[in-house]
Amino acid sequence: MHPAPSVILFTVLSGAGFGFLFMLDAGVLRPAGLGALVAFGLAYVLATCGLLASTFHLGNPQRALRAFSQWQTSWLSREGWASVAALGLSAPVALAAVGGGGPGMIGLIGALLCASTILCTAMIYAQLKTVPRWNHWTTPLSFFAYAATGGAILSGQRLLALACCVALGIVILLAFRLGDRQFGQRGSSLGAATGLGPQVRPFAPPHTSPNYVMREMIHQVGRKHARKLRVVALGLSAVLPALVLLVAPGGLIGSLLAFALHLSGAFAQRWLFFAEAEHVVSHYYGRPDEAGVAAGGPFP
Amino acid sequence: MTALPAPSAKKLGLVIDLDTCVGCQACVTACKGWNDQGYGAPLSDIDAYGSEPCGTFLNRVHSYEITPDEGAAQIINFPRSCLHCDNAPCVTVCPTGASYKRAEDGIVLVNEDACIGCGLCAWACPYGAREMDAAAGVMKKCTLCVDRIYNENLPEEDRQPACVRTCPTGARHFGDLGDPDSAVSRLVAERGGYDLMPDLGTRPTNKYLPPRPKDRGQSEAPLAALLDLKATGFAGWLDRLLEKF
């Protein structure tokens, strides 16, 4: 799948934002006064920047409000509702915190809505049977693990953040390992895609240069660096932030450094999430692992 | 609404005969021609005369090679377009309700005025049937020529999808696949018409007819005997004479 910068920014930033907002709503971190203003402000900025980034790739963003209409069937629509509800309900919690109050019952509901937003974001991808790597429980799990780790690091709760880093590391490895098998197991075949049986190979493509379907769903650029990027993603998202948290004496600088590392790792992981995901439509154009491409098949 | 309607009794769709298709691309051209004028945004072309032309098409014709256990390999031309699935995954993912399946005849359409161009429906489709128009920023897909098939301003013989109307070999058939007695349903039953990627549970309306088994080719080329021709008599003498110089 095409790793569009807009969707990478959207999922990474809103994930971290709603993760932090969850921690604040749930009372894991209880800032007061100016500290509360800064903390809630950061969560809101991250979440809103992410949500705004998601509109960058729209063909007609002026109609974006229509996306709220289909919450009964569409995870994308539900994501819109959940994010607005989470941001809205967290506002009184933020105001209370600035005044020195605790999150209370509204905070709990806000936290639940933050978690729902993250689930909805993950389900936009996890629902797609056409992309077997995404259509798996590791997708929501890794979105949750990223949100929780980002939120915990920003909350400055050292133990919680360390535990989240360890869990995130395991989830990343699990997602890579299980993800690699998905296409082979459930990704259909050229035989099933054409109904022409096992002894079929692509002979001539239907068009002479790549079209929308190929650019969007048969993206193959950069897979050669995938292995190195996986190490980078794991190291920056989980391992290095954990080391920083262990070594640094704590406090704001340590947390911010750990978060900066974690966020850049999240970008690498999310780039891979898209770039490594394969769509079943690729069968029609000849996959590298199917006969035909080498023998003068469709596209280089 | 992007909730799928209850399966309709009437299921309009196409039956594509892979035995007859010669891969001439006439259906591709006719589709592009018709859908450039009338229904929704025209199908745009980008860099049409440049080195890497790219455009929106609702129908693409691939060519595949199949190798039977016995006999020579065959080329199969394979038109690929929207299959108007009963369980259309492209419809339910749409956040705006732009993507919908008609309850009355099962045609899957896009209301372009409500489409935000997010592209999620194209991701949800296993068949690559949806293409985002680069100029209009809205999702385009086969409409089954909904503006032809019910159009009483057209002569009756033209009230079928442009691809079907134009196909010179009769490889494309249009009709009601929900009616077991329709011509297309009988064709599917007789020829063993099948679904594409049935494992994904989309329940397509369109069916493909498999290529018929070919007669076995002769094991020896009919002209092979001529290769060993020996000249005799005067021609033989001339042949030997000329060989010497």
What does this structure look like?
The complex is a heterodimer of chains A (300) and B (245). In chain A, α1 (5-25) runs antiparallel to α2 (34-53), α2 runs antiparallel to α3 (75-98) and α3 (75-98) packs antiparallel against α4 (104-126). Chain A starts with a helix and ends in a 15-residue tail after the last helix. Chain A has 300 residues and is mainly α. Chain A has eleven helices and one strand. Chain A folds into two domains: 1-56 and 68-127; 156-300, no CATH class. Chain A is 66% helix and 2% strand. Chain A has helices at residues 5-25, 34-53, 75-98, 104-126, 138-155, 158-186, 190-194, 212-217, 226-247, 251-275, 282-285; one strand at residues 200-204. Chain B is an alpha+beta fold. Chain B has one domain: 2-Layer Sandwich (Alpha-Beta Plaits). Chain B has seven helices and eleven strands. Chain B has a three-stranded mixed β-sheet with strand order 10-1-11. Classes of the chains: A mainly alpha (300), B alpha+beta (245). At the A-B interface, α3, α7, β1 and α8 of A face β3, β4, β5, α3 and β8 of B.
